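[User] I wish I could look at a protein chain and see how it folds. I have put the entry right below:
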Amino acid sequence: MLEMTCTNMMLGDVLKTSGHVDKFADFMVKDLKNGQCHRADKLISDWVDKQLTKKKAPKPEEKTAWLKIQQDCEEYDQA
């Protein structure tokens, strides 16, 4: 038995069969000021967390709407 150290030991067929090749794609956005790319769903989720922890508590219906957006943001696309 040998120990191998590398970044990826998985065959492409395994990734294709598991759905990672065809279905796994995160929508990215680019910051025009500094050129960095970010996952859009992560930015939305962080923004919702920030809104929910502000001093002034949101109304219950606003909180419900923001939590729904946070839950669904992984499914968003460019449209």
